[in-house]
Write a structure and sequence with these properties.
Elements: E1 27-30, H1 34-44, E2 50-53, H2 56-62, E3 69-73, H3 74-78, H4 84-93, E4 99-102, H5 108-115, E5 120-123, H6 134-151, H7 156-167, H8 174-188, E6 193-200, E7 203-211, E8 221-223, E9 240-242, H9 270-274, H10 282-289, E10 294-302, E11 305-314, H11 322-365, H12 367-383, H13 389-410, E12 420-423, H14 424-433, E13 441-445, E14 449-452, H15 454-471, E15 484-489, E16 493-498, H16 525-535, E17 539-544, E18 550-555
Parallel strand pairs: 1-2, 1-3, 3-4, 4-5, 13-15
Antiparallel strand pairs: 6-7, 6-11, 7-8, 9-10, 10-11, 12-14, 15-16, 16-18, 17-18
Helix pairs in contact: 7-8, 7-11, 12-13, 14-15, 15-16
Amino acid sequence: MGRDRSATNLPPVDGERRRPRRRSFRILYVDSDDDASTAVVDALAPSYPVDTARSLEAAESLLDRQIDCVVVTVDFLEGRDDPAAFFDCLERADPDTPVLLFGSTQDVDLLEQLLSVPRASVVTRTANGGVPKTDDLDDLLYALEEHYERSISDVRETVLEIARSLMSAAPDEIDVEVEWGLKLIGRRLDADRCLVFEYEGSSLDHRYSWSRTNHQERIGTIPTSRFPGFETALESFETFAIPADSRNGPEIEVPEGFVGTIHSNPDPDPDLESGRQDPEGHRVRYLADRDVESLLAVPIVVNWELEGVLAIEQETSRRWPYSLRQQVKTLAELIGYTLERERRRAELARHNDRLERFTAVVSHDLRNPLSVLTGYAELIEETGDPRYVDDVLESANRMEAMIDDLLELARDGADVDEFRTVDLDDLVTSAWNGVDTDGATLETVDLGTLECDPGRLRQVLENLFRNAVEHGSNPHDDGPGRVRIRVEGTADGFAVEDDGPGIPPDKRDLVFEEGFTGQDGTGLGLSIVETVVTGHGWTVTVTDGDLGGARFEFDTSGDVGPTRGTRGGY
């Protein structure tokens, strides 16, 4: 009797829903009866690619291909003088290939030969010979479904292969190896897409992907509230699967003497179980827009911190057994630790580079005022002339300023972590009041709110204001230091410019390096600016301003940015 389709993931019959794509599970059907072969292929072909063979020679040549399952009829084997030759052929091709004997037999020798195949089973028929009945074909489809699901429900070897590759990857190979791993696991699971998202506060940013169609899509940024299962499972480091299947939960050891019933949900809500229940329709939209019928979302956790999500999408319905979910969770951890290792390596390289530049600043730039101070001190000792005391104090003050800047620079953005939304106009005014402006004027234009570390951003603004006042006196004004400075909002953040002499194009790539100074400054102020900006996840560039001087443009649309704009995504 035929199986109940509602209890399986068998392909839908006419009128249920759209026909799904063929699975990547190739079947070899061996039968000498042309009419029977035609009927079986018609039944299997909507779901599986099928090759047919009507002779041993044809079967042997086809087994040289990638065959995932062999279906052979009793009629074919009993009609041969030497059925063992067929099993020998299977042994030579791939002894682990599943074999289904389609039909019934009382031949003891044939059954013994079948039992010698590691993954063999029998699918009985109402009667051998002729075109199989509908119920017989349903039974065959059911058996193939079980083998198909088994083939895509154990990825341990694939995860180990990816692990070996990721562990041995060079720094410049990380991105390629991660995407190669997604391709490997995607093909092993017969998935349509595999994606890696990075978790950034309240959003998921798409970083890596693999697609069965080789179409490299860019999803962009998705608010976490609109990603299926984020708030109910992923945020708590749990996997999320659509469709949910409580039958495949972890095995529970029942204590001796326990009386009662163990089940996870005695009266499940079908909409909730499917992951499609969402009052605002966000989760449904994600699934529908991407034509996703099955989804496995796994948290990427590193050192008890959620770093991202590994998502496997499939356009056909399938189960996600508990053991498979755990195996994919291991893969997610591997990817997470690989990316974390690369971040740490890059950070160490950056710190080493900064240490080398610190050494150059300390050994060269700090030595100059020290030499001047020592020289004037010796003159005072020799002559007793107090006129040189002012020069000594000036050199000492310059050294103190350089040491303070070095200490600030050594923080390297590490303290950029107390983010809150601030009124940028108020912060600019506060920074301006903390600098000796010496008659300079400030203008603010179209400044909104900004999410930032206000203390560190104020430090950036103070350095820019001080730099403009000290180095940018306007020759058209009546006296020195009367500089005009403007801070204005832009589409991507904000900009600070002045009407001073500006920065020549050939010097703009150098101004943020430690020790670069056009006059008698410490040469560290703009390096501090870049350090704090980088700590925020922003970028800063130098160009010509409308006022005639230098213009510093800050792009804050990276990790955090202006709240007056919105980020794309679902």
